[in-house]
């Protein structure tokens, strides 16, 4: 197909399966493919009527609903750039995003209307629409008067489809420019690698302002003509109520730990789907093993990031190894390099770089930062530290920004966390570096204890001294009730570093 527009490729399935249920909500409401096609066309025609043209941004901060899914599709087919925002962002954060993205239209939950109106100029204020949790609002009222027919814009491969922002933990958030081709080629690789078929039913419990729920989950369904059970948010009990009708579940590791603790998640129920996929945060080996023992399934862990979508995946057929993220996806190259950019052999830890059609176009309005993060031969510096074993399995050992340098020596947190997480009485852990007057940085471990009460810090330290070099052993172990996480389940180590910044100041 000469048209690279992602929707044009979805549309072939929409037309072939027009009367099929594309999604069914927990209250039993269903949407056929033809209904998604018609609703998205009306929204696309509305956007055209108010003066939006190809390349204009549409900023969206709403709760999950089938209607926001239609809005995403409307932007794709119109050649507009979809700009999703976490529903939890506060006005001070939104001021930066709106000022940087400069959208031509905004869709907000009614509760956020006043905030956006205060940020917008007079011209933009006229293009602010509301959409609530029930899928109602001025966007729906305005779009219903427009035609359900809309010609899909012809897009070139590098035309932007979406603008997402990094978490901003190391400075101002960076706008990540994703093209139609980035999304299409990655989705094709995932559909092929995970064998998505038209008879698959995905249990969609993820948020839709993030790569995982928006591009990975929806892309696999729409490019294969599959269908979804649609949960407005993750709830273990509701997952269990819908799981027997589903063949695939995608989730973050927290989803799986909570499922294992849910009495309704029986071994018989767990055996129903053909595939469980995990990503967005590292999956603990303990969770991997518990899940297999309970369900008979090995969770398929994959690795991606906003800038690249998905890079690697454990195999659908073949050994899925705990603690690894599998092999590079078709069309993706992965390499490990040292500080000078030299390729490292198998088993050596270094900087992980990727190259392929999945890699983003660059940072919005940041050409210098874009140039800085790409090598001369076109590889993207992910900022992750990784290792590839002799069998080709990729493992992520930590973020470069999380690496601890103590006394001039590098410590990779993941190495210690894997050891601590297996200790008696430990639920999970996070290893961080904190300021130290002598070593520059010192290692500390923040540990969540399980209900057994059997954790012993002295024993833990003795085990670590046996397992790793002395400079890696934590100077202190701190017990906490829970680790701070963002909405996608990732541990926010920047918060831990701030919380315990002065804990060794007197050492």
* Fraction in helix: 25-40%
Number of strands: 25
First-residue to last-residue Cα separation: 65 Å
Apparent shape: globular
Report the major sheet. 9 strands, mixed
Whole-number tally of structural domains: 3
* Percent of residues in beta strands: 15-25%
What structural category do the secondary elements indicate? Answer: alpha/beta
| Low-confidence parts | none
CATH architecture of the largest domain: 3-Layer(aba) Sandwich
Instruction: Please give the count of helices.
Output: 17
CATH secondary-structure class of the largest domain: Alpha Beta
Give structural notes:
The chain starts with 5 loop residues before the first helix and ends in an 8-residue tail after the last helix. It is built from 17 helices and 25 strands. The mean pLDDT is 94. It is globular, with a radius of gyration of 23 Å. The protein folds into three domains: 6-188, ANL, N-terminal domain (Rossmann fold); 234-399, ANL, N-terminal domain (Rossmann fold, 3-Layer(aba) Sandwich), CATH 3.40.50; 403-499, GMP Synthetase, Chain A, domain 3. With 507 residues, the protein is of the alpha/beta class. It has a nine-stranded mixed β-sheet with strand order 2-1-10-9-11-12-13-14-15, with helices on both faces. Strands 4-3-5-6 form a four-stranded parallel β-sheet, sandwiched between helices. Helix 1 runs antiparallel to helix 2, helix 1 (6-16) crosses helix 9 (211-224) and helix 11 crosses helix 13. The longest helix is centred in the first third of the chain and has 17 residues, at 33-49.
């Amino acid at each position: 197909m000469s048209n690279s527009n992602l929707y044009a490729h979805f549309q072939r399935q929409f037309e072939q399966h027009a009367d099929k249920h594309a999604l069914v909500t927990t209250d039993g409401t269903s949407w056929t493919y033809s209904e998604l096609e018609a609703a998205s066309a009306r929204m696309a025609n509305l956007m055209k009527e108010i003066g939006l043209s190809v390349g204009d941004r549409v900023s969206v901060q709403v709760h999950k609903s089938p209607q926001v899914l239609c809005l995403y599709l409307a932007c794709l087919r119109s050649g507009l750039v979809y700009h999703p925002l976490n529903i939890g962002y506060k006005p001070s954060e939104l001021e930066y995003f709106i000022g940087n993205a400069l959208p031509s239209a905004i869709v907000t939950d009614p509760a956020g209307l006043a905030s956006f109106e205060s940020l917008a100029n007079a011209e933009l204020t006229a293009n602010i629409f509301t959409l609530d949790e029930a899928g109602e609002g001025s966007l729906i009222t305005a779009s219903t008067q427009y035609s359900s027919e809309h010609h899909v814009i012809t897009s070139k491969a590098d035309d932007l489809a979406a603008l997402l922002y990094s978490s901003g933990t190391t400075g101002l958030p960076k706008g990540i420019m994703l093209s139609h081709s980035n999304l299409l080629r990655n989705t094709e690789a995932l559909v092929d690698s995970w064998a998505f078929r038209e008879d698959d039913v995905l249990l969609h419990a993820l948020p839709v302002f993030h790569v995982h729920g928006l591009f990975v989950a929806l892309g696999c369904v729409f490019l294969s003509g599959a269908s979804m059970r649609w949960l407005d948010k993750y709830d273990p009990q509701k997952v269990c109520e819908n799981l027997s009708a589903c063949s695939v579940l995608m989730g973050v590791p927290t989803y799986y730990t909570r499922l294992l603790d849910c009495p309704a998640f029986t071994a018989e129920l767990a055996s129903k789907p053909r595939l469980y996929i995990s990503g967005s945060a590292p999956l603990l080996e303990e969770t991997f093993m518990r899940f297999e023992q309970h369900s008979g399934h090995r969770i398929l862990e994959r690795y991606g990031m906003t800038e690249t979508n998905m890079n690697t995946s454990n195999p659908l057929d073949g050994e899925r190894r705990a603690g690894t993220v599998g092999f590079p996806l078709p069309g993706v190259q992965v390499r490990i390099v040292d500080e000078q950019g030299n390729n490292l052999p198998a088993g050596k830890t270094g900087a992980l770089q990727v190259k392929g059609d999945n890699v983003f176009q660059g940072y919005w309005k940041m050409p210098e930062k874009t140039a800085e993060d790409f090598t001369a031969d076109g590889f993207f510096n992910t900022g992750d530290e990784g290792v590839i074993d002799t069998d080709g399995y990729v493992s992520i050992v930590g973020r470069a920004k999380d690496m601890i340098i103590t006394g001039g020596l590098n410590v990779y947190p993941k190495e210690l966390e894997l050891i601590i997480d297996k200790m008696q009485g430990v639920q999970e852990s996070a290893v961080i570096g904190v300021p130290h007057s002598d070593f520059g940085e010192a290692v500390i471990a923040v540990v969540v204890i399980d209900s057994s009460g059997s954790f012993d810090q002295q024993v833990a330290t003795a085990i670590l001294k046996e397992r790793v070099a002395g400079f890696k052993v934590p100077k202190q172990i701190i017990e906490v009730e829970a680790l701070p996480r963002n909405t996608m389940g990732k541990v926010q180590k920047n918060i831990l570093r701030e919380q315990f910044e002065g804990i060794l100041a007197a050492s």
